[in-house]
Every structure is written in C-alpha cells, then in structure tokens.
## 1
Amino acid sequence: MPVVKVDADHALPPGLTGTLADLPGHAPVILMIHGYRYSPAAAHCDPHRHILSLDPDCRVRRALSWPRALGFGTGNGDEGLAIAFGWEARGMLGRAYGRAGRMGRPVAALASAVAQRAGRPVAVIGHSLGARVALQALHHADPGSIGRVVLLAGAEFRDTAAAALDSPAGRRAEVLNITSRENDLFDFAMELWLDRGRRQALGFGLDRPAGNWLDVQIDDQATLAALDRLGFPVERRPLRLSHWTPYLRRGLFDFYRTALAQPWALSLPMLRARLPGRIEPRWSRLLAPPAQGRGVRA
C-alpha cells in the first residue's frame, strides 16, 4: 500500500495504523495536497485519478504522477508511504481560498495522528491552494508532527504564511518555498481578486527572513546551475507563463524527493549556502527577450 487515499471529512482508511506501525524506521511518510479545481467528488477532476495517482490518465493534461515522481510504487519495502489528501477545490477562487483555509484543521489532525502512529514527522508537499492548506495546518498540528514542507507556487499571501510559520508546529517545521516568475500573472490575479492588491503573494517569499524557511526560484539560471552542482540537473528552458512548472519541469521532483525523504541530505543551512536565494523582480520572465522566456503553458 504505497499510496493511501484520504479525503476531507472521511475517516482514516482501515489498516492504516498497522501499515504505519510496520514502516521501516528510516522510511518517509509524505502527505501530498493538490490545488485549485480538483475534487474527489467528480471523476473528471478527481485528484486520485490524476496527479495523486500512481497511474494517472496519460491523456489528461498535466497528468504527472506525484507519488511515482516521489519514489513510490517501486515495490521496494523501504520506499515508505504516500498519503494523497483530497478536498473540494472547485468553485470561485474566493470560496476555494476560504475552503483551503478550513482544510488546515483536518490536515493537521491527519498529520498529527499519522506522526504519532508512525513515530516520525510527516513531510508535506502542496501546490497552489494546496500550499495554503499545508500552511494553515501548521496552526493546528501537534508541534513536531510536520517536518519538511515543500510549497509549489503557493496561492497564499506573505503575511498569512508568516503567521503560520510562527505557530508552535510552524517553528519546528522546515519550509522550501518553490517560486517562479513564470507564475507572476497568477500571483497578481490572486492579489487583485482576493484582497484588491493590498497584500503581496508568497511568490516573493516572506517579508522577513526566517531560519526555517528557504525560497527557491526554479526559473532562475543561477539557482538551476546550483541545483545541477548538487546532483539535480533540471530542465533549463523557462516559459513566460505557467502555474504548473514547479511540478512539470523535468528534474525538479528528484530534488523534492530527496528534500522530503532525506532532509538530512539537503539541510537548510547547506542549501542556503549553495543556492543563490534571490528572487527576481515581478514580470522579469514575462517581459524577457524571446531567448529567455519561450511559450505559455496553460
């Protein structure tokens, strides 16, 4: 059972407790959270048939299997356990954003229960509004139950993220904030739609540095060169506009897998020393010359 499906407002699957108890001591537990416009209640946008599936429909756009990319489904008994969390993320953006905030409590309860039964912190990866869910879970999770968190193009505001990081669970977690100037239009639209442009999105990182937070801009050439030197060659060709390159760009999931499953191999102090840590100005990709930013991925 390398991947376990858990949906909001549903009980834990039978047998999960035993599975967690039988995990090898070094095996990771990784909680995956999808973003906007997915719903377990509708077959055509069910995340468990799409990105959270071991075998998604290859005819569907952006159908890359997160659990396989994270190293699950190999048959290796040491691969650990992936938990695919599904929630209702359809509807108008404002309502979905509010619902994502409320999903923090059930995700926190899930992470706390799993960490207690597995005897280790749960790692978390979330895209878009799934990143908001992950951050909101920090407000309610048992301290120490959530370890390394990878946020992919998080649909959240900087101040809200900082408040989550300042919670008891947040202070004991580590966050890799994966950003991209390819996501600028989506960040800008969120700022206008949800708060009339009064606050900035998380694509710029936190307002104030935090020791357990690191921004990684994955369309910055210096950052990609540094990842290559660390043993993670990543596709270099940037796009002008895309909300999905944090998980579709070839090579990135190798980095995420190591960061989540073996955080000691990519410690934050080491990454901070090796990666540039800079964030380029907004619109720098959209306005770049053609050789630097090609195409749009819808």
## 2
Amino acid sequence: MIPKETTVFPTKWARKPAAIAVRDLIQKGPLNAVLNFEVSPQVSGLDSLLKLDGPAIIVANHSSHLDTPLLLLSLPDAMRRKTAFAAAADYFFDTWWRAAGSAIVFNTFPIERRGGNLSSTPGDLLADGWNVVVFPEGTRSPDGWIQRFRMGAAYLAVEHNVPVIPVGIKGSFAAMPRGRGWPVPGRPAVHVRYGDPLRAAEGESARDFAPRIASAVSALLDEESTTWYESRRRAAIGASPAQTGPDAARWRRVWESTRPMKSTDGRRRAWK
C-alpha cells in the first residue's frame, strides 16, 4: 500500500458554502458566457447520471484546457455544485494565485502526476459525498488522440466502492489544442457524451478495472464518429476501435483528430 499524504496547498476553503456560492455565480455567469461565445458545445447521455445514487468518479479523455469547463458546465446544476477536479500540482498549484484561482473557479485540488505518495483528498471528498473528476491520461494529449490511461481512477473506485462515469469529449483539441492560450476562431463544435456508470466487480482489481474504463471512454468517442447502434454493437463484442490514433507522423495524427465531426443526432442537446 502506497502511503497517503495531505496536499501541500489547502483547498478545503474552496468547498465552504461561501466559496460554493461565489463559484456558482462565476460558472453560470461569465464562464458559461465566454465558453458559449468561443465554441459550440453540445452534450448527450445525461440520462446516464440518473442511475447514480451517490458520489461517483467522472473519467474523461483529456486533450485541451477546455475539457474542465466543458465537463463542469455540462453537468446538472446540483451535481456540478458537488464536483471537484483533480489537477496537476506542478502546473495548477505552482504559484499561489494560479492555485487559488483554479480552486475557486473549478474546485480543483492538487494531485501529483509524477509518482510518489497518494493524496488523501480524493478519498476524503468521495466519503463526504463529492464527485471527483479524474483525467487518467495525466496530461493533455499532444495530438488529440487518447494516451495510456493510468490506474488512479480505477484504484479510487475499487478502494472506495464508488461507480465510474465514463465521458468522451470530442472536438476540444481542434478547438483549443495544446499550446494555444485561447480557442480558435469560428465557434468550433465540441461534443460531450456521458456513458452509463461502471462498477468494479466483486474481487476485481484496479489493474483489471482500468482497461474497462478506458474501453468505455473509447466506445463513447466511437459513437461520436459513427452512430449509436454501430458503436454499441462493437462495444458488445469488445471490438470498439482504439482511440489512440493512426501509426503515422504527428502532422497526420493531428490532421486526423481535427477532421470535421458528424452532424448532431436526436439524443444530443445544445448547451443550457
């Protein structure tokens, strides 16, 4: 068992009633307005969240700084107010002003992504009824395709006996790839798709559960590229295509990941 440690930068204050009220105003006001002005977000699969009866770990692919506000603002209000984000300690918590800003706006808490001791914060939050968002890749994709999923989310789910909600985010890399400080012009489309809750089977280890989480996210991205029926049929037989991209030069991988997405379907709805 890896020993746990408390986080260096305290963030409990960001989950006090006053901070929650301020964050709610920021998220539903200027943050939502700016996001809708810069991109065209749409969401589907929110009915999957109705199957929850307690806190959950929300797991998504990660290729852009847009992913955090997209996830937050796509959630129902009650769930959004009780959701915290695991954020890289060496990036978002390297200075006090960045740490405080991300904590108040996005309800982030620091997590080490270079190994070492585990933070006790995720488990404490889950025990207190908070949902926790984890990007298992550990960092943004450099070309829009999924990188290897680490086992942190699966470990938390097994350790604390909570479900995992898989989420596929499509188009955020094309809208704001790594290296850009602002989205590209033209309000590009970005889609957020939620999947049904996953639970570790009795006796299932985190090592065995982690690939199932990755496959669920891949199936959601496959659905964005094809159709609901085709993606479900492939998922049922374990044939969902890997979302790791073509074995090609980086420029080709970037070109493939930024191709226009298919038109919207009847189950997807525009932003609230």
## 3
Amino acid sequence: MRPARGVPGWLYLPALVGFALVVIPPIALTQRLPWRDFWSSITSESSLQALELSLRTAVISTVLCLLIGVPMAIVFARSDGVALRVVRALVLLPLVLPPVVGGIALLYAFGRRGLIGEHLTVLGVDIAFSTTAVVLAQTFVALPFLVISVEGALRVSGSSYEQVAATLGAGPTRTLVRVTIPLVAPALLSGLVLAFARAMGEFGATITFAGNAPGVTQTAPLKIYVDEINDPQQALPLSFVLIVVALVVVVAVHLRRPGRQPVL
C-alpha cells in the first residue's frame, strides 16, 4: 500500500490501531472454531432453521425498506422545512436508539395491548411474538440505512437533471423512473445491501418484540445468543457464518461500480 499524498505520517499509527481493533476479534474467533464439528454444527436442524428464518425475514424487511424508504429519501432530499426536519430526525432515530428500547417501543405499539395492536387484536390479528414481528423489528432498525444512503446521493447529485427533464416535458413520475432512480442507483444498491445486513444481524429489538421461539422467531443471532449461554463452543460456527456474510456485504458495497448517467 502506497502512502497517500498529503496525509501526515503520524496518522497511520492510530489508523493501524483502529484496524487492529476491528480485525483482531474476528481472527480470534476463527482460531477458536471447532473445525471438526463445524459442518455438522451449521447443518444441524436448529442452525438451518435459524439461518433460513433470518434470510427469509431479512429479504422481506429489505423489500419493505425499499418500498417505503426510497419515497421518504426523495421527500427528505427534495423538500425542506422545520416540520420535515423533525420527521427526518424521528425516522433516523433507530440509528442511535438502543435496539432493546426499540423492541419495547414496538411492543407497546403493536402488542396485544399496544397503541395499534389492541385494535388489530379485535380483528384477530396478533403481531407480537410472531414471524411478522421479526420482520417489523428488522425493518425498524434497517430502514434508516437505506434512507440515509439514497437521500445523501440525491443531495450530492442535485436536481439539475430533473429540471432538464421537466423542461423537456417529462412528468414527475417519468422523471422519477427515468432520471432520479438511475441517478442514485449505486447508492440505492448500497443502501439495500446495508439494510439487508442490518436486518440479518438484528438482535435486541427482535428478542424483545418477537421473542425467541425456534422455527418461529429464533433468528441466527438469537440462536447464537442461546448457544453462547449453554455452550460457548457451539455458538462459534454459526457466528463465523454471519461474519462471512457480513464480510461479503461490506466488500459488495465498497467494490460497486459507479452509476451511469440517467437517460430520458
């Protein structure tokens, strides 16, 4: 690695310390892996069940983030006002909110006696401690990642292309589909990947709002938590799998190609 031009040499020392802080723990975990039992552990019925549930719910929550996150990002980037800033702050709240607190908030919103849940219960719909609760918890914590990615790209790109499209007679919807979305496609892809990764790793809000029922709400992080309590060695193989998934996600985000210019 060549030294970067204009970067003071002393900065490399704290940068190296930060790199070590992040990299050493996964390496230490890998060294302790019970390789002889690795395959049998990750292919056990309970592990496959937890992984399948994590993947399925993470995909669904990522789609939900796409459907509701992109419109919010566009509104935030192309509108202004004090009220809208307050709304934006609330949407980004899960980024800094402890996940367990988020889970409690979801429980009091969608639980049987919750603000919305009590009305759903009358209709025979129970969300808390179900697979649907897992999806909602994942969407709650993952949504801000997509919103920030797309909104940031929209603010950087500006609205000049959209204004040109409008002068050429393109309506708002056509401009959105043919100009705005292609313009932020790389950021949208990054946001989707990050949202999926955050959903896959969600723990606190899930265990609080959805519980830990095997086959119903026990995702891979929850199973790792239970295994760590009962037998720490048993928790390592599945932990390694999630590390690999997270690594693939990070590499995919940082090696993405630059987006193309929008075409009317």
## 4
Amino acid sequence: MTQTSTRPRRLSPAEVHALLGEPEAMVKGKIQDHIDEYFRLFIAHSPFLSMATADAEGRADCSPRGDYPGFVKVLDDHTLAIPDRPGNKIADSFRNLAENDGIGLLFLIPGLRETLRVNGRAYPTDDPDVLARMQTEAKDPVLAIVVEVAEAYFHCGRALIRSRLWDPASQALADEIPSVGEIAATQFGMDIDPMALTHALEEGYRKLY
C-alpha cells in the first residue's frame, strides 16, 4: 500500500503564543541595542559563530565562521566587523546581504554554556583600515562583513546543557559518522580511495593560513 505523505499542521502566531506564554520581564529587559563591555569581552574570547542571512524571498542560510579568539572586531558600540576567511567561495551570505541586509549572529566560547546573540543589518567592505585589524599571520582578509547592531543579548545555556556539547564524552559521536572522504566519494560518485580523499581534505584545511 502506498502511503500518502501529509504535512504537519501549521500553527498560527496566536496559537504559538498561547502555548509558550509571555517571556519574563527580565528576559525582555536584557536585550540591548549596543555592544557593552560584557559583550565586548565575550566577542574577544569567541573563536566561533554561526551567521544567519536570507535572500529577498526569505530563503535562509546559516554559515559557520571561525578563527582565533577575537577574530570578530568591535569597531564601536554599534558596529562589528567579521573577516571573510578562505572557504568554499559559494558566497551565499554575500548574495543574501545584497538582497536583504538583515543578519543574525550566535557567538560561542568553548566550555561556556551561555551564548551571545547579535542581530542587525550588514554589508560587505574592503576598507583597508578594517581589513588591517583582522590580519592573521601576516595575511589580511580580502573582504569583511560590517554588522550594524540592532539587538544584542546573552542567551541562557539550556540548549548547550541538553546537548552536552562541551562534554568530552560527546566527541565519541563523531566516530559513528563516515569520514568526509567516504561521504564525498559516495555523494559525487567519485572513483577514488575515500581515505586518500580524506587526507587531501585535511591537508587543505592545514593550508588555510
């Protein structure tokens, strides 16, 4: 018998609100419109963030960004700059920002349960003064993303606690996943030794700088 696929029921905003209820006053009050001294400290120690953008049609993309702690620079209380390091050159984020300049950032610090969320507007720049501040091992990025901050606030650690993200025992989960070489060889039908492909990719990672 052929099964008919059905989409899960869509809830209205009113139904969602009825289920979740109102946030506490302290939760609403923690949202700021600028980067204060504590946000600066968090950003200065963060080596990783997730960056969310969307195009004019609302098609969303979330991109990982990482480098040495403090790779994102605070230009002033209302402005951040994110270096664009070598990657896959697909440039989804840049295409999205050309159509829709809204952006959302989620900063993480290894071992810390709380995260920092920053929302605002963004655009690419090649300003030499900005790029010079992002020099890494004598190399400047070609581009940077300037973020004009509209909201910034700390997010509680419930998600990271539940996920056990920083628990060393959780790293054993990686052993249950095929290597990136095995996955690529299968997905792209490549007639190549998966182990050799994995080594080649790892060598490429080591040459990022």
